[in-house]
Amino acid sequence: GDSVTQMEGPVTLSEEAFLTINCTYTATGYPSLFWYVQYPGEGLQLLLKATKADDKGSNKGFEATYRKETTSFHLEKGSVQVSDSAVYFCALINAGGTSYGKLTFGQGTILTVHP
Amino acid sequence: EAGVAQSPRYKIIEKRQSVAFWCNPISGHATLYWYQQILGQGPKLLIQFQNNGVVDDSQLPKDRFSAERLKGVDSTLKIQPAKLEDSAVYLCASSYVAGVRTGELFFGEGSRLTVL
After folding, report:
1. Is B93's Cβ below 8 Å from some Cβ in A?
2. Which of B3, B48, B108 sits opposite A101 (nearest CB)?
3. Does the bond joining A115 to the residue before it have cis omega, within 30 degrees of 0?
């Protein structure tokens, strides 16, 4: 079945550091890929998405590129802020498999940014 | 626009007791989801409704879990009897019909269950 694997966490950075959170996936067909974020005390919210190979999703300074050849969707930000501290989830929806319409999540990566 | 509302936020019960969680989705959202998030893991879909019909309940432990969505709006998730391994955060999410394809779900803050 479909699956998403995120880098082992947590990640601790100083403000203005460069961020990469790795995400790889296994899926049949043509999945759409997502990053969701959960800030402390809040619900999960969509951060960015990409629906086909080579698409780049971006939002709030975060970027991720859909790489079909490496089955990856790594999240990056050039300069993190304390307010970026949150849990980040990589996810996919597979329009080509039996899990159509079901988001499959990775295990999440906790990011802590210190001043 | 009001978000997805869930209650209670926290619940502590002993094993073999029962518990119910309530969810009110965003107005106009036809699709409603219940996810289980165990500590250190990503959310796992338990059940998906389209209006008041079940689309996917393949991962719902039907011997102890049940869910309903009367009139295609609010939903209730029940666990009876609870086991220790049911300790988790139960997330409710909703989306427009198109959200099923776009993957844009709107999540509530979750209900945290602790089973002792």
Report:
1. yes
2. B48
3. no
SS3 B55: strand
- The answer to whether residue B108 neighbours chain A at the CB level (below 8 Å) is yes
Distance between CA A6 and CA A8 in Å, rounded?
A: 6
Helices (H) and strands (E) in chain A, counts: 0, 12
Taking CA atoms, B49 is separated from A28, A81, B28, B92, B100, in Å, by 24, 38, 14, 11, 11
Residue A36: what pLDDT? 96
| Token pair recorded at residue A109 | 């990566």
pLDDT digits (tens, 9 = 90+) for A18-68: 999 999 999 987 889 999 999 998 889 999 999 999 999 999 999 999 999
